[in-house]
Amino acid sequence: REQNLLNNACIIDETGNKVFPETNTITFGSAGTIKAKGMFTGKIAAEVSWNGTAHVLSKKGGFLCTVKVNDVGINEQQLTVGNRIQIGNSSFEYVLHSDR
Questions:
Q1: pLDDT category, 97, cuts 50, 70, 90?
Q2: Cα-Cα-Cα-Cα dihedral of 66, 40, 94, 17, to 10°?
Q3: Digit-coded pLDDT (tens) for 26-46
Q4: Cα–Cα distance between 26 and 48 in angstroms, integer?
Q5: How far is CA 100 from CA 17, 52, 73, 84, in A?
Q6: Cα angle 25, 84, 19; round to 5
Q7: Residue 70, CA distances (Å) to 7, 23, 24, 73, 77 in order
Q8: Under a CB-based contact definition with an 8 Å cutoff, are residues 68 and 85 in contact?
Q9: Taking residues 80-85, what's their average pLDDT?
Q10: Contact indicator for 26, 34 with CB cutoff of 8 Å
């Protein structure tokens, strides 16, 4: 299961672009790997990293930065397939590439 997530899980942005985090740290924000729009998303607003068994989304921006998973504000959240991610005004989805 972990190997399938590691190899096939991806983050899809609003335009359909896919980013595969694998074991790399993926950042969101104006200076991030994935661009996020909206106020308070400057530099790095959040990141996704691999903890050995799952990808984890961590908020890196300040208090006013919006980071949500399935409409719930988070500081850190283990991602599961189908999660909807909101960073600032941008939306993303965490899916298995084989599901799309």
A1: confident
A2: 150
A3: 999 988 999 998 877 778 999
A4: 5
A5: 12, 24, 26, 15
A6: 35
A7: 23, 23, 23, 9, 11
A8: yes
A9: 96
A10: yes
Residue type, 40: F
Can you read off the two tokens belonging to residue 25? 């740290």
Contact of 93 with 12, CB cutoff 8 Å: yes
**93 bridge partner residues:** 12, 84
Residue identified by tokens 């694998």 is 22
Distance from the Cα of residue 87 to its chain's centroid: 8
Q: In terms of residues, how long is the chain?
A: 100
Contact present, 21 and 36 (Cβ < 8 Å): no
User: What is the rounded distance in angstroms from the CA atom of residue 20 to the CA atom of residue 70?
Assistant: 20
Residue 16 burial (CB < 10 Å; 0-12/13-18/19+)?
A: exposed
| Of 43, 4, 42, residue with least CA distance to 20 | 4
The pTM for the full model equals: 0.91
- Residue 49, token pair as written in the block: 């990293």
